[in-house]
Design brief:
With 272 residues, the chain is mainly alpha-helical. The protein has helices spanning 12-22, 27-57, 63-100, 103-108, 121-140, 145-167, 169-172, 195-216, 222-244, 251-270, and strands at residues 177-178, 192-193. A two-stranded antiparallel sheet has the order 1-2. Helix 8 (195-216) packs across helix 9 (222-244). The chain is globular and about 60 Å long. The relative contact order is 0.12.
């Protein structure tokens, strides 16, 4: 028996399955559900393409990055519906604003991203790849969607915390320390953190947690998402201070592991 309700994160696929099971056994009814499902997917895909085009015009993403963003966005939509899209959009908007903030100051200090913060496909995948994979798992195993959605929010919380703590921490931080030795270090180097940057990162995680809470109504998960995001962010700094500084792994790999750590932290907190 399939429930008539599916919570705040009900996806189009799950609604279709629910409707097909609960509907009257008339083929026409099922066909109408399928048509509505395909139409809704088509509209979302067009909107994602339009949004990607805008990011190219605004020079926030290059062409390959925009294509990667469309794929990640559509995978997220299929697995988690409007809630996943809202989380992904929140991350992108926050990251875009943080990257653009005080751009001239960061450029003068040699701390700005290349090409004025225009993101590449590798960077998009590093930050959103884990969310996309989890969304596809949610698509395939929709009965586990509540857990997978929490993990997605946790991964994007980590990505957000890392981006804002780096972009804004370098602007507003006062004292900078190596995360492994806690000795003073040079601002902007891999693995260097500040108190201000860490707090800003937690604020970024809180915004992602807020979007999740508004969409799902599960306020109890708010703290878990912030903790998971902070855990991933600090793990990112440790990896940066050790493996990335030694050129063993790239920054994109570090960012992917950051979001993976956040997702796994969310998983562990779910079962506590």
């Amino acid at each position: 028996m399939v429930s008539n309700t599916c919570g705040g994160a009900c996806t189009p696929l799950r609604k279709l399955r629910r409707d097909i099971v609960n509907a009257s056994p008339k083929p026409a009814g099922k066909n109408l559900n399928l048509v509505a499902y395909m139409r809704e997917n088509g509209v979302v895909f067009i909107l994602l393409c339009a949004a990607a085009g805008i990011t190219i015009v605004l020079k926030k993403l290059d062409a390959k990055a925009a294509i990667a963003a469309i794929i990640i966005g559509f995978a997220t939509w299929l697995g988690t519906g409007y809630t996943g899209i809202a989380l992904l959009a929140a991350f992108f908007i926050i990251a875009m604003l943080a990257t653009s903030w005080k751009m001239r100051t960061k450029q003068q200090a040699g701390l700005a991203e290349h090409h004025r913060g225009q993101r590449t496909a590798a960077q998009v995948i590093a930050n959103g790849g884990v969310a996309a994979i989890l969304s596809l798992l949610s698509f395939a195993f929709w009965q586990h969607q509540p857990l997978l959605l929490l993990m997605i929010a946790s991964s994007l919380s980590s990505a957000t915390a890392d981006t804002v703590s780096s972009e804004l921490g370098n602007v507003y931080g006062r004292k900078f320390y190596n995360i492994t030795s806690f000795k003073k270090d040079i601002r902007g180097l891999n693995g260097v953190i500040s108190f201000e940057g860490t707090m800003i990162g937690m604020a970024g995680s809180s915004l992602i947690a807020l979007v999740y809470t508004v969409q799902t109504g599960l306020a109890i998960h708010w703290l878990w998402i912030v903790i998971a995001g902070t855990t991933g962010n600090l793990t990112d700094s440790v990896l940066g201070a050790t493996l990335e500084r030694r050129h063993i792994i790239s920054n994109d790999v570090v960012n992917f592991l950051n979001t993976l750590t956040g997702a796994l932290a969310g998983l562990m907190l779910y079962y506590l």
